[in-house]
Amino acid sequence: MASSFHTVATCRFERDVEKLTKKDPRLLLVIQGLLVTLASDPYNLARRRDIKNKKLSGVKLGQGQW
Question: In degrees, to the nearest 5, what angle opens at C-alpha 34 toward C-alphas 42 and 13?
Fold first, then answer.
């Protein structure tokens, strides 16, 4: 299935990934896999991933509370 979505990493995300992968380089492969999954099926319509949407507590409306 061709990717119909494009993922964009923020500078903050890239800094966090760099810090995390210095501690555990294996995380880079995990993160790369997650980005591929997100780009190919961001809404998990194929139900291939065990992803559950839950509302976060303590997050204001409009600030990504899911």
Answer: 95
